[in-house]
Amino acid sequence: DEVQSELGAKNTELARNIQDRDNQYFQTEKSLLELKQNKAAMLNLLEDSRELEKQLKLEKESVQNKVEERTKELSQEKQRLFSFLSSIPEGVLVMQKDGVPLFANKTAEKIIGIDIKKFLGAKFSDMLTVYKAGTKTIYPIDERPSCAALQGKLTTVSDMEIERDGVRIPLRVTGAPVYNIANKVEYGIVVFRDIT
Fold first, then answer.
1. Residue 32's beta-bridge partner residues?
2. Is 92 helix (H, G, I), strand (E, B) or coil?
3. For tag attachment on the chain, is the N or C end more exposed, with fewer CB atoms within 10 Å?
4. Torsional sign, CA 16, 17, 22, 23
5. 156 Cβ contact list (under 8 Å, min separation 6)
6. SS3 category, 96
7. For the whole model, what pTM was predicted?
8. What is the pLDDT of residue 67?
């Protein structure tokens, strides 16, 4: 009876040990399966990340190409515009808001007798003396079409003269504002001709 009881206890303990080992084996199998699934998910994420990286690189190259292409187009458009302005048979002068010349065509330089590039950074009003026609009176700066244009006014005068090489040259001068997209004066454009 005692042996039987002892054998029953050992069988029970052995069955518990087998059950514990089965549980451990099951847990290990379950953990391995989870690890395999996690590994597969990570590999998928890595592949997705690589694919996104490739797409971003291609998109970046596309944007860079478009920027380069647009920059080239704008440069050509700017050159074309300057070609148009340069070929106008009247003097054309474009001034920044502070009165400093940005562009002058060859006709403008010929009429006023000044190479504008030599005066970069100087105000146009400081480059030459302008007179009221037929007088020795200096043309008031605030009445000049160039200044009016920078104040947002379109004006034309025919009573202005400049002196070049000791000779007075009468001019017809028109000044007009150039507005930016916010409707603020950004430039002034002055068109003038010798009316001798």
1. none
2. strand
3. N
4. positive
5. 145, 172, 173, 174, 175
6. strand
7. 0.64
8. 97
- Record the tokens describing residue 94, joined without a space: 């474009």
Q: Which residues, other chains included, contact 151 with Cβ-Cβ below 8 Å and sequence gap of 6+?
A: 177, 185
Q: Look at residue 1 in the predicted model and tell me its pLDDT.
A: 72
Greatest CA separation found in the chain? 147
| Low-confidence stretches of the chain (pLDDT beneath 70) | 119-122, 124-126
* The token pair that represents 44 in the structure block: 């998928």
Dist. CA 156–CA 150, nearest whole Å? 14
Gap between the Cα atoms of 107 and 110, Å rounded: 5
Amino acid present at 139 = Y
Sequence-distant (≥ 6) Cβ neighbours of residue 152 within 8 angstroms? 177, 185
